[in-house]
């Protein structure tokens, strides 16, 4: 029998250990990332700001601090920049003002050498860009990034050194203007200090800083104020420093964003002559964002509109046994999201489907970071994981969702933290507690570790949602063709509270020309992370890999990498699930090209023959698979981007538990018809052949036409079409539809003064077809309008 401590005891022990660690560090270690040896300047505080019009004719610019972008850091390695770029910066005590003069000797006002487009916000990569990176605590943990193209289109993001991710989901309210000149282009920026978290107790600030320019021609050249050492895997540790900003005081920082949403949704069955079921709604809402101090932010939302303006990218859900992942796009959950991040995805707020309210508090005091979030949900959705499959469960009852995160940055090398989450409804709960650390003793070596414990209680009848038959029978000694239960039933049909753990350990050594890593993860049978996205449990996995990188000189190829990895997975009983070996080659070169290809060989188990038991040995077939894959992206001109993703080789036919041959082809084209009109088209083709013929052919086409009338007005038309054809005679254990078609369309007009002050007017519909419906039939249509305005008080 496995002895388990009560969850409250384990949670209390973990939190107590974290608290002791926190108290031991309250004497406050100094952690500094940016170095004056890299680059330094002193930001003057001046009277009066600049008018953001792109002219740079105010007298303040004559007294601003000046920085020259002298170096090309990629693809060239700290060589002299091919073009000149001058940045200037000053402060008024309420805002930072930044200007760039970006020279380009080959351009003129009327030519199209400079690459710039009227795009949506955060969709400027590939354009000429200038910008700044700011680490306002200068502790190498998080950095704000702001970039602007020659039309003034904004891109902002958060770089997180803990996870290694850059997220453009965060959207701040800041101001820009830009214009082309006879010598290149120039940009003017105002960054209100209300955007930033920083320590207002300091009489003089020291921030990590880097001024950056992206110069895309035959290759994308990254220009900087200082050199970047490729032997140092920590990017934020290599910032320069900006001092000055004397006497910054907390200013009133209150943002109120009322909204009003009108919606008419109509649905009907697909049968001919079916009546429409119409639902009209008018929903007022309010978002509140209060900067209590420059390092403490309180956010609240009441009756929020969490509808998505942009449709998710199309995904083919065929011959897959695991639930699909969709990213979070909603503003309330994205604000300061990075404060909750750990090495594992233990908080994925897309699991909160339809809240009435939400509250979030984030703060950083010295080397200590705190974050708390609470929200209800009128529905209760969560992932039911397994080692061969996963699915989404849904309860028709309200739930309360809580998350709390604490992190202590002990010194430059060591961070420790804890995360707790809770999801609870009347008949269900999931509680989770985690401790994590990141240790970087040298610029090349990084250790990460995380331990997670969870306790879960499912409703008594939840398992019936996953039964293969209406009565879950037969429930023992089953065969593939006749079994009422499956893995999801077995993992939810539990009377007692489930308690179990997850372990994560990783070491990586990374240098300029080579890297090596190893990772081990173990998820217990009964581990659950219902506010996160952990789709596999009852599994342990060991991975080891590495690679070598060349940087050719005076060549059309700027980087070549040869790499690979080996991994092996077992269930907690020690039974083999999968063993895989992969080798790959990557190239970067002219025409902004990236190409990679590789080969994968693996042993992997198929479906359980008797799905009334979770055993693997003697209950599954072990298949040998070999597959080749390739990916390429190229930008042959400023108007055209082409990419192609493909693979061919063995793949398990999970419906019939046999080996097949799969072809996957995914081409994409982005055609900029003009600086303001773009057409994005992608297509996915998948086919699977088995011994007796073609099992299925699946196609998905995703088309999006964007017309940006100006910086604030746009029209978007999108359409996603799915067409699947199957041969039912080749399905051994079922009889699926021979044909399946879906079509989703959307037309949207938008006016966006800033990310929170918007007007949207749109229409969307959905059409379906299967064996019982002769043609695509509209089954859903929606008319909607949204109006919101951010009041900055």
From TrEMBL:
Upper taxonomic lineage: Bacteria, Pseudomonadati, Pseudomonadota, Gammaproteobacteria, Alteromonadales
Pfam families in the record: CBM9_1, DUF5916
Signal sequence, start to end: 1-33
Alphabetical list of InterPro entries matching this protein: Carb-bd_dom_fam9 (IPR010502), DUF5916 (IPR045670)
Keywords: Signal
GO biological process: carbohydrate catabolic process
UniProt GO molecular function: carbohydrate binding; hydrolase activity, hydrolyzing O-glycosyl compounds
Domain Carbohydrate-binding, residue spans: 52-210
Start and end residues of each DUF5916 domain: 275-353
Name listed for the protein in its UniProt record: Uncharacterized protein
